[in-house]
Amino acid sequence: WQVPLYGSLKLNTDGSCIDNVCAGGGVVRDHTGMIILAFSSSFGIGNSAEAEAKAMHLGLRLCSERGMSISFMELDSLFLVNCFNDLWDPPWAIECILRDCKNLIPSHASVSHVFREANGLADRLAAHGHTCQ
């Protein structure tokens, strides 16, 4: 994981799906690497794409509600990044979620893919989401 530019916030999210039960989590950090916000949640029945999209949506919604402007967002789902960046057509199950995410993220923000190893904290928070009610 790399710190964002000075004065910026970075949101990392991850989704998890075990036996069709979805959960997700994420973390917002500043340019010093300090954690500003962390979250985990259970999302109910679904698939891995839905888990990833719902984690992204929850993170953006929490940031928006708190007046945080995200400059960078990283996910370890290349599929979701490509759908969000309009490189691929999303499946209908996540199309509305992605549309709402686009309304929540600042227009200057970048959404990019990182390998799982660079998204470790978000991955652990997503796993913890399976224990949340």
From TrEMBL:
It comes from Cephalotus follicularis. GO terms for molecular function: nucleic acid binding; RNA-DNA hybrid ribonuclease activity. It comes from the Eukaryota. Residues 12-128 form the RNase H type-1 domain. Pfam families: RVT_3 (PF13456). This is RVT_3 domain-containing protein. SUPFAM superfamilies: Ribonuclease H-like.
